[in-house]
Amino acid sequence: MFVKNAWYVCAMSEEIGRRLTPRTILDAPIVLYRTQDGRPAALEDRCVHRRLPLSKGRLVGDIVQCGYHGLEYEVSGRCVRVPGQTTVPPTACLKSYPLVERHGWIFIWMGDPARAVQEAIPEFFKLADDPAWCVLRGILPIKCNHLLILDNLLDLSHLAYVHPSTIGNTPVAENALVGTKASGDRVRVTRVMTDVVPAQAYIDLGGYNGNINRWQITEYVPPGFYLINNGSESASRGTPTPERIEGQSEWGFQVHHGITPETASTTFQFWQIVFPRRAQAAEDRARFEKMPVLIEDLVVYEAQQRAIECLSERGREGAVNPVIAIEADAGLTHGRRILERMLREEANGGA
Amino acid sequence: MFVKNAWYVCAMSEEIGRRLTPRTILDAPIVLYRTQDGRPAALEDRCVHRRLPLSKGRLVGDIVQCGYHGLEYEVSGRCVRVPGQTTVPPTACLKSYPLVERHGWIFIWMGDPARAVQEAIPEFFKLADDPAWCVLRGILPIKCNHLLILDNLLDLSHLAYVHPSTIGNTPVAENALVGTKASGDRVRVTRVMTDVVPAQAYIDLGGYNGNINRWQITEYVPPGFYLINNGSESASRGTPTPERIEGQSEWGFQVHHGITPETASTTFQFWQIVFPRRAQAAEDRARFEKMPVLIEDLVVYEAQQRAIECLSERGREGAVNPVIAIEADAGLTHGRRILERMLREEANGGA
Amino acid sequence: MFVKNAWYVCAMSEEIGRRLTPRTILDAPIVLYRTQDGRPAALEDRCVHRRLPLSKGRLVGDIVQCGYHGLEYEVSGRCVRVPGQTTVPPTACLKSYPLVERHGWIFIWMGDPARAVQEAIPEFFKLADDPAWCVLRGILPIKCNHLLILDNLLDLSHLAYVHPSTIGNTPVAENALVGTKASGDRVRVTRVMTDVVPAQAYIDLGGYNGNINRWQITEYVPPGFYLINNGSESASRGTPTPERIEGQSEWGFQVHHGITPETASTTFQFWQIVFPRRAQAAEDRARFEKMPVLIEDLVVYEAQQRAIECLSERGREGAVNPVIAIEADAGLTHGRRILERMLREEANGGA
After folding, report:
1. B318 partner at 20 to 30 Å CA-CA among A172, A320, C299, C324?
2. Which helix (H) or strand (E) holds C306?
3. Is B91 within 8 Å of chain C by CB?
4. ipTM of the predicted structure?
């Protein structure tokens, strides 16, 4: 089950052009393309007639033509022509999906189109358009349920054990002051470490040679958006103030994720890392590109997913749920609860 | 569910020899071989004792010997020897299947052997033995339910969109006069185009340089036999008469298919193309061999099958059925209805 | 369903060291390793917190540290540390499994640890430690239910048909005097052939040039241990006495198997062949190594398994059971009955 009345990232802008591109989002087969005026479009990827995916067909002007019997659909999803006959059955209509394109990303609305309000898309990704920032981006398909990624992003203590060669070290798990705040549908987890040994990436990129203050602030906008602000400064500056942890202070970066379920057991991670542009921008970029962080997480996700599927097949455990909670679970527990409430509300027809 | 009291093609003659050859037909595991006098034989491919497929064993004279404990079966399926003991359990008997071999094809009867009447095999394939015709043949395993192939063969408008580089062009979908006739268990779909631009293969092989009349006559003998007669002539001859469309007129060919379910999601297409022998027979053959027609259809079938399986897994649609009917569906709707009636009659024990 | 209150082989000694090694036994995910003092240990391979297999983590001294959030477990399975908090939830405990290491093999107890009595491990494998014997050993993963291997090892008539190039020939199936004896939980099948032509391996290794007496004595200790004593002698010695068939007489060897279910459809065969050390020991070993016997059996097992799964999927047959019994099934029928009784007793909470 997925929350449908919500925006999700469905593609990077450069993935979609004048070609019929299939993609499954929330278990729904979708064909993505651009009309002649360059706007992205998304239709159900199944001909109403005999179920051939329309992505196997042709884009003729702004018409999507089925590759089997030539049925033609306009961008609204309406079938406008059936070769060999003069009328078109009035019910011959594909579902079409609202799209918004911003900051190099394409967002899709999977539920009731009447509720698709553009303002609901968080502005996390906008730094990609700011010349004061450098950006790295990508799409990573992962063989796991999306909740396993939520668990990861709302408990960053894992950096100590999953990413010890780059952005993690023991103090991240052991010396952080952790705060969790849920307001409305949002969750914010703050993790502040004061006067700790810097992790390797902070030495390499931040240039520290003594202890530092460091913070990780995760903002979660359910169901699928995450912003992680990472900042640091020399420990000599004393306990960081609330104002300082809203920025990066001496050195830091932000990570933005669009986590979009493909199916119940596969998920797309659309990711973007941004860091302030400075003289050594090319070197910064090369260092960020070399870090294996996303792949280290992927290895964990996919091993968890296989473990959970094994247990589930064997009837010992049904749900993708934690078994024993620890203190660090506070953030993800909040996040999962909000998702459950959203699902319940959708099931009841509420907002 | 499959119609069992019926003949199906199970092999090309040259596939079966003095070797135990496994093949699954209508979900039943079968071992095919020839006895010493050259006659084809078909037995259930599971030893009654411990389920080893007999195709893993040995053919010793006309005896099939299991490769595990040496149980021996005669061509009737009866177990005639159990090594190490003097008696044979009277129930130790494999199912054996009636076979008929004709025109280079082997036909199998999957239901009650008492009802296996050779005359029920249609004579579609006999042109393969006629020296006035050339023949191309083959077996193509396809990952789809057999009904998707029925849909294709009873609505040839698809040539315009699936085979546009060879035998199809727009007029095939848009300018055909289509007639559908069901009589008894047979369906006949006639498609006649008058004064149309020839498709590429008709230019290359038929040698036309102006408009033509063209026809496609599909005869369907359920559950598994199809004959498609393709004919054409210069448009200057005026509307083709009923007599002319029974033959090929100036240029044409026939296609014969034995469509045999392997499982619910896989099917064998046994196919044969025949064309009148003329001076340039070698060149004709080379051109027919080069056409990607069967593979183009296979790509559609397998994409449809995956689409339907996805929908079905997700509980949104159970059956392999069309959703919105168009006029061109008349023939396949007839064909599917006859199959459904045959299945009902078999379920009720009728003929 | 598996018998759990029993010892099974889970590894060869040399497979397990100071590395976290995952292995599934009776459908349970287990991580195997050695503590610093060299003793083998086995824990449930799932962190209690978020299900990551512990085999993806690290071995730090005698502590198993989870690779996700660093939870630490001691060899008893108890969680002794959760990074970032001062207390450990008292229920944070992995299942740990009793192990015994003997003769180069590691044995695991999968059920109630209170019942794990070392004396219940049969002494089959001890000849591996006897300098008078040579040994070959290995682990073979097989894609079949373990009962198919039981069937094989308790009916050695199959040598005539599965291993005709080495240890089998027709007399093994046709001229054996077969006896089956069940006492308590054990089954013993004796097969004695008198004055028969030797199989090829008996010519090559035993050096016979005339007829021989030959015997195969299988001892089965359910659920997972098998000993097969193979002996032979010149036929001129007359019918072999009960004493002689307890040994190998002029030439022979023993085979020891630990048959351990991995899942319902996959099994580990831990095998050991021992033969008396003599002058030509190197040549003997080379000949044994070259025989394809285990692979010939594997081919049969896996073909049976696929056949049974096909039948089962199609709803025609549920159980992995013989359909028609022959006389040679006496031993395996005994063996299967004992297993069924053990399963019933475990289900009822009995011994």
Report:
1. A320
2. helix C293-313
3. yes
4. 0.93
